[in-house]
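Researcher: Let's run the pair from yesterday's discussion. Sequence first, then tokens, for each.
Model: Starting with the first of the pair.
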Amino acid sequence: MTEPEQRPTATPAGRTTGDRAEKEQGTREPVGSAGAGRRADQSEAAGGAVGKESRRGTWARLNPLLRLLILTQLAFNVGFFAVLPFLAEHLGTAIGMAGWMVGFVLGLRTFSQQGLFVVGGALADRYGVRPVVLAGCVLRIAGFAWLGYADETWSVIGSVLLIGLAAALFSPAVESEVARQAVVWEESGGGPRTSVLALFTVAGQAGAFVGPLIGALLLAVDYRVVCLAGAGVFVLVLAGHFRLLPQHIPGRERVEVRGGLGGLLRNRRFLALCCAYGAYLLAYNQLYLLLPDEVERATGSQAALAWLFGLSSLLVVAAQLPVTRWVAERLDLRRSMTVGLSLIAAGFVVVAVALPAGWTGGAGLLPAAGFVVLLTVGQMLVAPAARAWVPDLAAERRLGLYTGAMSSVSGLIVLVGSAGTGALMDAGVPGVVPWVVLAVVPAASVLLLPRRRSARP
């Protein structure tokens, strides 16, 4: 596979010298510095390339490594979402677990994944992308195969821990390298880095859409077949990456694991971005908490949820790239996240305003559909911008650590916030209250966003 070309102006971490983070504080050079000036010039040039991008597809101009990593995200989600959406039903009916134990197992998988992202990111910085991704694939294969044959509580817990740990290894390794390569691509005049990260998001959503369809077809045979098929997907991913993923990626230098966490914890601008991103993820998580409750109130069942989830996925697959191109011409990263978080807040307001009317049936689903559309459009603005921002805030050669830390911090916010939301739902307060509270969270998080110091994304 052809190695990605590096510009002479790029540092080993994939950033210009003017963007280099200070060792202890993780802060940037002021706007008036020569480094920041070069950065603004490069960003302006990247913004001007958007017109070319509309004529030549972004995909056709990516280097082979970026194409491989984006297809990796597609394959990861196909394999994952073929198996996990049907896990709760399998545990409750086939294995006979109590409801609280099913919830515990699902929460344990999420914790073992999100909570350890920071570890996977640090390992990618220390040992490189290839060994961490390959190790994650091996663990995912073992986890899915074990889950297919697990028929006791202890074996189910062991298998889901392996499944979560696998993602904690390969996801931050892949995401951090995509972000680094996106910066290099932008600096070489290819276009805004958000275009690359938008493709990454589209690939993930496409996998999340296709995976359950495959799983549902195979479920007619047996859940074990579903698990083995998911494992088979990761066998193919493992073989492809063993053959195609470079041993050493130019521009990525390995660093010691220790020594980076202190600087990260002192990097207030990065932690502020993590909190704002966590507010977005908490809002997105309401697709699985508040939304089902509202759909059941309006229609008497949750059958319409599948259509609303499909609407969200199709919106991202169809509109993410056009939206990203439009935004890249008009908004910097901070403004993109501001607009996105405001749209997400507006989605909660739509339901909060409509609830007192007590609409049911088809009319009752309209506010829920409005919520899904606004949340999804907000996601299209927030997710690529947040990922594109991390390289500017990360310390030198610590992009994997910072990418993993953003997922871990935001995952903790989702855990605490979801528990609070559930407590509100159980407290007997009017149904409008959780929607109002969740509208305030993304709106208030706009105030946390650090100030940008360059002109364009």
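Model: Moving on to the second of the pair.
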Amino acid sequence: MYRVDDVLERAHSACGQGTVYWLGEGGRSAAAASPTSPLPVGQLWPTLPVAQQHALEPLAQATGLDVHDPALVVPACDCSGFVCWALGFGRKSDPAPYTDAAGWIYTDSIWADAMGAGVRFERRARATPGALVVYPKAGSGENYGHVGLVMEADADGRARLVAHCSAVNFKVAPFDAIKITSPEIFERQPRSIYAWCRTIVV
């Protein structure tokens, strides 16, 4: 089991690595030095829809990534991969109440467990350092769910700073998907909740 200080330290250590946001990447092994997976962007780029290439090319140029180089490999992660790694376990396990049917831990499965059985993730009314803040895709009106780690909370039990991996983070210099920011992205989503991972020791 990890302690809260361990989780916060791991979250801090993942920042500033130039991580690219890529859905489904990262968080495979808690023993890894970072939450990221090596992503062969140069090989994947030609397979992306043309409209997506046009949308992403200016950002790639701004970050100095030559996406037309077939040898280009970058560190990549998504929000669930980052959080699972910081909490000290891989995002893939045997199927459980806190995973999907294939055993993957992701935003909707975290949210559903916290709102239901609470097998691994327990809903909390107040934010504390080390807690999660999460909303699901289902019923949110968003294209994706999102999850982050509360790094600081105020006296009223609201998150003040959150570490999270997102495409929005990557679009703003310094270009890194994993950053510690205000909780605004979560506060504007009505389905956001706080949750505690039962494997973490206070």
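Researcher: Give me one sentence on the second I can quote.
Model: The longest helix spans residues 50-63.
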